[in-house]
Each structure stands twice: as C-alpha cells, then as structure tokens.
Amino acid sequence: MRADIQPGSKFPDYELSDHTAARRKLSELQGQHPMVLLLSRGGFCPKDRRQTELLIDLHRELEVSYCRLVTISTDNLLETNEFRSGAGAHWPFLSDAGRTIQKDLDIAEYTDPQHNPMIPHTIVLEPGLIVYKIYNGYWFLGRPTNEELRQDLRAVTKKCRPDWDITDADHRAAWARGEKDRFYPYGKSYARVFGEQD
Length: 198
Hints:
elongated; 198 residues; 7 helices; disordered C terminus; single chain; Glutaredoxin; 7 strands
C-alpha cells in the first residue's frame, strides 16, 4: 500500500463503473456517512467470496446505522455482476478491470500473475474519505471480523455524529428550542440521507 495511505489521510476519490455499468465516485457512494471499502481480488477467489458472504448480515446492520459498504475488484463488468449476484449482496460493486487502483496504490498481488489481482484490503473510512483503519487481507485471517468492523464503525460514528449521546442537558435544551438541525437526520435533507445507494 502506498506510504501516504494511512490512518488520518484522505483516500483517493476513484471513479469506476458499478455493477450496472454506471460511473460512480467513492465520495458519491459515501455521502456524509462512515464507509467500509473492500478492495477485492474478485469472484474467482474463495476467500473473497467467503468474506462477502459474511458481510451480508453486517450490511443489514449498516443500512440502519447510516453506514455504507462498497466492494471494488479487478473483475470485468460481467464478472462483477456475477460475483455480486451469486453472493446475494445488495451493496455497490465496482469494476477496476483496468487495474487503476491496483497500480495507483501499489497493491498488485505479484504472487498471482495468472489473475493479476490487487492485494485484498478492507478500509474503514470516516466521512470525507478519511482513512480510519486499514486491514491487509492477503491472508484471510488478516481481514476484519464483522465484530471488529462494528467496533471501528462505532468509533467513527461517535466522532462524526454530534448527537451520539442525546441524554446530556445541552442536547435536550437544543431539542426543546427547536434546533433540530443538531440531530441526525433532521439536519440533512431526507433525499441525501435516504437516497438510493444501490
């Protein structure tokens, strides 16, 4: 991984085609939410398929937690769609068949010249594509468990949601004064909060 990609740095705002062939930027997919980004070998890899299967239940929690999940692989569009559909996943999958990210981040998996994938990584991002944590998943046990991701996202959400603890007197008084913009999602337009992310 490129030396400048580390906790506290801004992750590049890549733009790639999603599983429907629509061009999508990471910032657009993230919005103002915490996000888990999977940099994946692709559907050919049993480790990546297993990680995706495990994330299906977590994704249901992320949806009600206002968090996002995105997978990027070096699969072409057809393979990307097959990987997503075959796993039964419902979050955006992006295709990087041209290896833009693999080259830019210096994560070519040189031990697999046949598939030429990227070394798998799981990256937890704060709003604004700020890197919170990076997991190197070359070995499967290097990948975060769902519980580790819950803990990471809890920490990120506490940082980015001022109304994390609404029991304090200041929040109660603000609500009583009608200052609802201090509370999520009242401070955002519903279109931005609840817009389509699939």
